[in-house]
Amino acid sequence: MITIKEIAEKAGVSAGTVDRVLHDRGRVSPENIEKIRRIAEENGYVPNQLARRLQGSRLLRFGALMPELGTEYGYWQQIANGLEEAKRELETLNAEIVYSFFDRKDPESFVRAGEVLFSSDIDAYITAPILADGMRELASRHPDVPYAFIDSSLPDLSPIFDFSQDPIAAGYTAARLMRLPGDDLSSVFTIQMHKGAFNGEMRAAAFTDRMRPCMQVENFYADRWEEMEERLMKASQSGLVGIFVVDDQASMIARKLDANGAAGHFRIVGFDLSEENRRCLSDGLIYAIIGQRPGMQGHDAVMALYNHLMHVSSPRERLSVPVDIYIRENIPESPHWL
Amino acid sequence: MITIKEIAEKAGVSAGTVDRVLHDRGRVSPENIEKIRRIAEENGYVPNQLARRLQGSRLLRFGALMPELGTEYGYWQQIANGLEEAKRELETLNAEIVYSFFDRKDPESFVRAGEVLFSSDIDAYITAPILADGMRELASRHPDVPYAFIDSSLPDLSPIFDFSQDPIAAGYTAARLMRLPGDDLSSVFTIQMHKGAFNGEMRAAAFTDRMRPCMQVENFYADRWEEMEERLMKASQSGLVGIFVVDDQASMIARKLDANGAAGHFRIVGFDLSEENRRCLSDGLIYAIIGQRPGMQGHDAVMALYNHLMHVSSPRERLSVPVDIYIRENIPESPHWL
DNA sequence: TTAATTCGTGTGGACGTACACGCAAGAGGA
DNA sequence: TCCTCTTGCGTGTACGTCCACACGAATTAA
Lengths: 338, 338
Fold this sequence. Notes:
Helix content of chain A: 40-55%
Mean pLDDT of chain A: 86
Shape of chain A: elongated
Largest sheet of chain A: 6 strands, parallel
Number of strands of chain A: 12
Largest interface: A-B, 42 and 42 residues
Oligomer: homodimer
Structural class of chain A: alpha/beta
CATH class of the largest domain in chain A: Alpha Beta
CATH topology of the largest domain in chain A: Rossmann fold
């Protein structure tokens, strides 16, 4: 572990000169620049993070650009928890996180919320690129600010890291869970809240794909509940009905069907261990929940960005979030792990 | 973020005096001790890790006391991977990890391996207390060195953190997985490698407990394979047989039954995504695997110890590792997450 | 009474980096 | 010739903590 001072000694100059070379601050003779660069290279100089971050002046600021927590409470809130945990781990290292929220139903709000972040001079940001065009716009406006994706990915952009769950694997898993108990289902539906949401569409497609060999699958969007309700209740008269809710609203569907006194006729598989889903799972109203470790996504995204900014070099990576299966028996005690 | 210097100013003393109080180095008047403690408390003083670890002199050394990786390859190796990842995160912070391995079949080797760690002057250690008496001995010999437990716990000792999976919940989950497809099983067995292993016994007991209402469960230890094999093959003639392997040897059982051409007659649920188990799961020879996030256990244990040593104060905690369910459809791509 | 010890406290590095400042030498313009 | 501006470099200090050392005063021992 060679230090600036040692490089200076070897090069026969002062530490200040080495510092200027290392930071491209100029005012150094070409020969010295060359010599210092070479010595640093040969000895594998790595700046000491401790010393570097010790001056309180330069604080590292991360931006988090997310949908409003209120709209999809559990999941995004848990991601935020993960971000906060990372913040706690990093705060002794002089780093902080600023948030900005967009409305996932208003594409324009994404870029607006992003600009709010940039106005507070962030060094990097984390976002869920669920509004693809907005994300492209933002990335092209600020090409030098590194970012990481969580929740879903966008193949044509180059985040430093990309933490998301493979929606195809998730759909297959849901299909398997549905069919585990033999082929006792009489009919199967998928339901999604957000029309056009990438993850949702892919999950539903993969699920349908696996189901099709033995049965028809009907796909619904949740905006027309009345129609859907009627259809579901009717289907339940001819046997057990499978419902795959591709976003975190399974509890809502489950509660409504339960209110009709028909809960027993449905086998519901949903996503994300929100408080409500957790309760329904524990009450037996939901059959299984697929999780995607929101807390870990948030935490690891911040850590990855931190490492990237510190070690300067660092590979761009795509990391697949595991498909967690929760049934009544393995509901985690502590939200810490989610 | 109040600093030592600021505390000193408020208390009307020098930084050196504050330092002595904070480190219990004595040689300070009672009044000043009291005053400084109060000021630090009131302002929530937290030592700055950067400054603290900047003096290269004091390097933090963690010990890892584990069973030989070879004997139970996948699981312990993955824990070691988690430890290594934590090490990478901490190495800029002047910390390292030294390993020592014991033979889980030789109780004496635990303490011997432990003493090897202490001879290299560790500040804290991580271990799996599967040899309970050895662990008690070691803890009493070195009462001042903090430790964290992974894999399993030992209620009469006081680790700083205790990361382990609730074996009861794991057993219940296995039972549920077995019975998901209706009551189509004709007979059920549990198999364990290590007689007397705490986790294994508890898992088997919980599983048996859940199964009992509808069917008999036979418990086997793997040491007498011939006898067991005969019994299993015979049982398979009268219907589908459930096997719950309470440690990571499910693949071994599965391969043997497959070699008998009888794989289709068994539904096997096992533990830990070792390479072999992963393959069997993917080939359909194993029905489900229960995971316990070994990588996370290792990683988080190191981090928890680090935080404990740095922030001085820190609560003793028991954290339950989630019961992960893996079926063919959700085998994680990347071992990173395990 | 004098010397030795203890106690309470302050001082001043050191860790490695960042950066402001200052200083000398030379170039250019009036 | 004097003044200013630039270039190339060194110096000094700050960041917060740790710790060795020093120093006066009080206490104890001889």
